[in-house]
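debug: dumping io for the single-chain case to check the tokenizer round-trip. Nothing else runs in this session.
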Amino acid sequence: MRMLDLNKVCAGYGDLAVLFDIDMYVEQGEVVALVGSNGAGKTTVLRTISGEIKIKSGGIKWFDQNLAAMPAYNRAGMGISHIPQGRGVLGSLSIRDNLILGSYTKRTKPKREQLMKMVFETFPILWERRNHHAETLSGGQQQMLAIGRSMMMEPELLILDEPSLGLAPIVVDEMFRILNRLKEAGKSMLIIEQNLVKALQIADRGYVLETGRIILADKSDALISNPEVRKAYLGVA
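debug: decoded output
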């Protein structure tokens, strides 16, 4: 069943058009990757889904609801969690307090301790440092905290914008192992990522975005083996 469905979406910033006729969807229990180079419009797609940017034309559905007509602040309560670039953790607050802020909806408040236990089991380092300020964490640990805070919302769809950005290669490997565990647990995800191979290795399907348009859409293994994709994004003929 399609949980998120974008149909001919055009969007941009003021008079600047950035996205053109975007058709893409995410089904329940599915991991979808949106890949492309810098400036392709990947983050704009996410901001449009999250309601930060109003669409100029087209439509966005969340199950049977018109998502484009909903105010942005309704997304969390509907089950959509968006982890932006830069992670957005609150450095002056403790790890525990950052997590508490993720469970503010009526649906999740009663489950706060149960959800926090699940996060600490997923990320033991956060348990060890739960009373430390978030600013004392490494970049990789802050990304774990950002994912953990989103898990506190008990989302139906987890949206991640460049989860590997600024991380050392060994930390990137660990991050994608964690995302793979979430996938195995049945979590639906939409991942925006420049690291095409990492993204497509975890995803079921993928879309390639170029200058605001989707130029390819296929199963992940087909995209990885596609000669055009390999030449354009991997430098391999």
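debug: round-trip ok. Strands lie at 2-13, 16-27, 31-35, 55-62, 65-66, 80-83, 157-161, 188-193, 205-210, 213-219.
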